[in-house]
Design brief:
alpha+beta; 4 helices; about 25% strand
Length: about 170
């Protein structure tokens, strides 16, 4: 990937939180994606994965072997007393992390990354391409330097279908 640099670009860069929504299977995650998912946590820009079990969202923060380490943000809370100047917020934090087998993961997830600078974004592009795309039999996603020309792509597909149907 080519750096997007330059003085003007450096001045206009804003920190980026990147969410990559994925569907990695129909009703369960396809095991072909396990290695790629585990590798995402090795990237320094990783914020984790928003995902979970069916009908139960979790914040996945790491991996140990084939176990995903997660925080469960769903706890019942008492109503906050807004008359108190500094309400207690301790109960809004998870007391501990839990683990689940990667095979229990619902196939609808979002990979999350943070890049404070353009240099970090360029580094992420290179690392993601190297570790998550080019080395994978089935990559989680693709990275392109330019926006694809959807109209031309659709035209090529439809003309190919037209030629195929004539034979």
């Amino acid at each position: 990937m080519q750096p997007h640099g330059g003085l003007a670009a450096a001045r206009s860069w804003k920190p980026l939180v990147l969410f990559i929504p994925l569907r990695l299977g129909l009703s369960e995650i396809n095991p072909v994606y396990y290695c790629g998912l585990k590798r995402t946590f090795a990237l320094k820009q990783s914020l984790g994965i928003i995902g979970g079990k069916p009908n139960h969202a979790l914040y996945i923060i790491g991996v140990v072997g084939d176990d995903l380490v997660f925080l469960d943000p769903h706890t019942t809370q008492l109503a906050v007393d807004l008359d108190v100047e500094c309400p207690e917020d301790e109960s809004y934090h998870c007391a501990h992390a839990s683990r689940m087998d990667i095979g229990q993961l619902d196939p609808s997830i979002a990979l999350c990354f943070y890049m404070a600078t353009e240099a970090e974004f360029d580094s992420w592009c290179n690392l993601a391409h190297k570790h998550l795309i080019s080395q994978m039999k089935q990559p989680l996603f693709e990275i392109t330097e330019h926006r694809p020309l959807v109209g031309q792509t659709l035209q090529r597909i439809s003309s190919g279908l037209m030629r195929a149907s004539k034979h």
